[in-house]
């Protein structure tokens, strides 16, 4: 009769506990991975949109100069835009900055901005600017070059490239447009 009164163990074994913890970790990790991927996609989308706006800005300034036949670049030591004609190598990379002022708007040709031929744009309180001194905002590199077309004779293909990185992954957007009757 003593064997009938034996008390039964009602606790979990170590293996049952480990299986329960593993299932719980899988259930929690799935949504965290999905949230992380969504956050990375949102950051990439924002950077891609900013890069496309920066490329469009440069293209619009170049088109405006062509349309208004502005042959004078302002700014100290600004070279002529004809120095940007080439195949996009370091010697022919240029960038432009549009500086709104009260008395007169200024377009400055930067050629090249940095020693490696890239033109750094960083986020400032007034938007993106060519400022590489102590500013730790989001960094984009923008440059353009002009490719001469054979027909018509006074036409150019403008390539505007904006590069950035998210972590260790580099990204690039290229905007291309043909300008006919361009006065360079």
Structural description of this entry:
The protein has a 5-stranded antiparallel beta sheet with strand order 4-3-5-6-7, with helices on one face. By secondary structure, it is α+β, with helices and mostly antiparallel strands. It has 1 helix and 7 strands. Strand 5 and strand 6 form a beta hairpin.
What descriptive keywords fit this protein?
27% strand, two-stranded antiparallel sheet
Largest sheet: 5 strands, antiparallel
Instruction: Note the run of SSEs as H and E.
Output: HEEEEEEE
Calculate the terminal CA-CA distance, rounded to whole Å. Answer: 109 Å
SS content category: alpha+beta
- Count helical runs: 1
Q: How many DSSP-defined strands?
A: 7
Number of domains: 1
Q: Give unreliable regions as ranges.
A: 71-78
Rounded Rg:
29 Å
Strand order of the largest sheet: 4-3-5-6-7
Helix proportion range:
25-40%
Q: What value does the average pLDDT take?
A: 77
Q: Strand portion, in percent? A: 25-35%
Molecular shape: elongated
Task: Detail the topology: elements first, then pairings.
Layout: H1 14-68, E1 95-99, E2 106-110, E3 120-124, E4 127-129, E5 139-148, E6 156-166, E7 169-179
Brief summary:
The protein is 30% helix and 27% strand. The longest helix has 55 residues, at 14-68. The protein has one helix spanning 14-68, and strands at 95-99, 106-110, 120-124, 127-129, 139-148, 156-166, 169-179.
